[in-house]
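We modelled the chain as a single entity of 361 amino acids. Its sequence is:
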Amino acid sequence: MARRSNVCPSYLLHQPTGQARVRINGKDYYLGEYGSEESRVRYGEIIAKYASGQALEPFSGARKATGCSAECGLTTNELVLAFMRHAAGHYVKNGKPTSEIHCLKSAARPLIELFGFTPVDAFGPLMLKSVREKMVAAGWCRSVINKNVGRLRSIFRWGVENEMVSAVTLQRLQAVSPLLSGRTKAQDKPARTPATEEQVEAVRKHVSPLVRDLIDVQRLTGARAGELLLITPARIDRSNDVWLYYVDGHKTEHHGHRRIIAIGARAQVILNRRMQSLGTNDRVFKIRRDSYTLAVRRACQEHDIPPWTPHQLRHAAGQEIRTKFGLEHVQAALGHAEFAMSEVYAKATLERAVEVAAAVG
């Protein structure tokens, strides 16, 4: 594979003089003592100008506009550190940190590398665009970059809320438009397609009975893998022909949404068999989500099956429901808050979800 060109020049040491330097278009720009805050600030300023296509003259526009100097107060490093301490207590579900913690750390890394020593109120749109260019250079896809830029804004928004950052700074950052498809070097992530019947059947022959049952129940219900891995006999209302599984700890719970999964007759047969020797609070599927995904991936690799992931079963269910019932039923069965998300999965009400489960199984 060809080596990716480095569109973001590195912070380097000039050993004879002990100065920091950055090489751009064959020319070295000296930044001051290597490792010093001033050299880091100077490096970030030059990178911001370079990424925006401006002449590499001494950069002072942001500091002049805000009246900041390198010693004028809170740095970006300090803001990110304070926010991550907040995030460690905020992004928690069932006593465990959510995946958003990892996403925030990933988004903040290029910000810290480029502008960690920059005063927060000197951080402006050109600098934010420079951070984005570093994400492009790292090979991140366009949608991920746009989400991560939004996460960086959320850090500054939290700073405004807690009187660490000027509201004007946040307002300036909001002026940076998202990357548009076809108008950026960032690649678009391929659209996720449903797993086909042939792909699923081919994998079922090469996985354990536990994984096979999990595949079948997910295919029949359209549930997320994480939702099924939480299921216990106590959480299922079996008083009617269509069972209702009340999900605890689902992904939109913190927005006040309730998630109920309707389970039809075919899925009930599988669950009944697995629940025969379980206690009321025992998990029906005793497997980790990453192990489930790995089992499917390994079966695909070892038997030359076109690769798919468990989440594509949810897309397949959405497509089948859309064909048989319509978009509103997709929204109800898959638990989407908005039609836009149902459109993604299908390429409300509880009654509609029950209707789908009764018909599909």
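As a brief sanity check on the tokenised model: The chain is about 50% helix and 10% strand. The mean pLDDT is 81.
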